[in-house]
Amino acid sequence: MYLSSIGRPAAGRTDSPDPAERSGRRRLRVVGANVFALGAVSLVTDVSAEMVAAVLPAYLVFGLSMSPLSYGALDGIYTGATAVLRLVGGYVADRTRRRKTVAGIGYAMSAAAKLGLLAAGRSAGAIGLVIAFDRTGKGLRTAPRDALITLSTPPESLGRAFGVHRAMDSFGAFLGPLVALAVLAAAGAGSFDAVLFTSFCIAVLGVLLLVLFVRDRHDAAPGATGTTAVSPRAVVELLRMAPVRRLTAAACLLGFSVIGDGFVYLLLQRREDLALGWFPLLAVGTSLVYLLLAAPIGALADRVGRLPVVLGGYAALTGVYLLLFGPLHGWPLLILVLGLYGVFYAATDGVLMALAGPVLPAGLRTTGIALIQTGQALAYLASSVLFGLAWELWGPESASHVAAAVVAVAVLATALLLNVRSDNGSDNGPIAGDGAGATV
């Protein structure tokens, strides 16, 4: 069976309800309470994060006169420099089976980083260190959080569950820039400190929601029948599993093709000569589309296959990069670019993790998710630095066209990589402990 069918209910299963019963159950409850609780935590945390992220690129480039290369390095740190800690967080969460605790530490670190930005002032070096600390927190929490979603959801509904979670997450991303604008309007246009302090208070609320409402979920004890004991050797064995190895390689390819939100919005601002006051609203446009489409696209992925949806999202990203220096101008350009960018996120963010969940051994699910996310984040770090360098050497237009070509190549390579059979023409068989009967 092709990898693109991972996550669909396997034929001949007798332990799942019949279609009519399952359909009725879905009408009563789309996803479980734990997924909604995790979504609420992400919603509030993203309000806090996007308050800062919406104004940070303009502040660094225009306020501190940072070069595109320097911004690219800092943007890469923002996502990728602490990526190895995703593996640490995933391994510790699997080893201790306390995924909620590890995620909570990560959320608390990101909250504290908002106060760190207050202390950093105008020092680019200090800002970089604080951003690294913030991303360390994100690295620790992301894999345990996504593992909790997979453990709280039937395998055939993973796309829907991740779609609902990402929709709530994106609603927070939609609100964040608006809250930042409201704070600036109330406290004054240059009151960056007020934005940071408000962001810190909201982040603390997110931590409280996690503590009070999210329940830890446990699979079978490590080493029990049908599970994999958690050990460094077992982690290495993950990469010997063909589907995990291919998914990790694909995640690296796709991560390398992404240049980052800040660059896209900066290029739009330069192209249309937008006033800096409008800059945070570019992220709002993307988040609105993401919010509206995340859940429907997640449900679509469960029905038609998750791999085609992911590849379609990266095809939309190719369109974004080409349009940045295409024939369109004005509102048509802004609407089309932000719309396609929202489609890209809705089709890729949660769906890639839904694709990964069923092929990972139960006892190493968090570690496996972290492994895939780490590869993607490290590739993104390299991409951000190289795009900033290309901008300085060749100019933004040529750099954008090269980025579009890289995405197209990554989509083709991923399609070939994940749609393969074993050499003898047979399937590799189900992954032990995946609980879904998925084959690759």
What does this structure look like?
The chain contains 17 helices and no strands. The radius of gyration is 21 Å and the shape is globular. By secondary structure, the chain is mainly alpha-helical. The model is unreliable at 1-28, 221-227 and 421-440 (pLDDT under 50). Helix 2 (33-53) packs parallel to helix 8 (158-187). It has helices spanning 19-28, 33-53, 56-63, 68-81, 84-96, 99-120, 124-151, 158-187, 192-213, 232-238, 242-256, 261-272, 279-304, 306-323, 330-356, 365-394, 396-418.
Keywords:
17 helices, mainly alpha, single chain, disordered C terminus, Growth Hormone, Chain: A
Largest sheet: number of strands, sense, barrel closure: none
Shape: globular
Secondary-structure element sequence? Answer: HHHHHHHHHHHHHHHHH
In CATH, the architecture is Up-down Bundle
- Mean pLDDT over the residues: 78
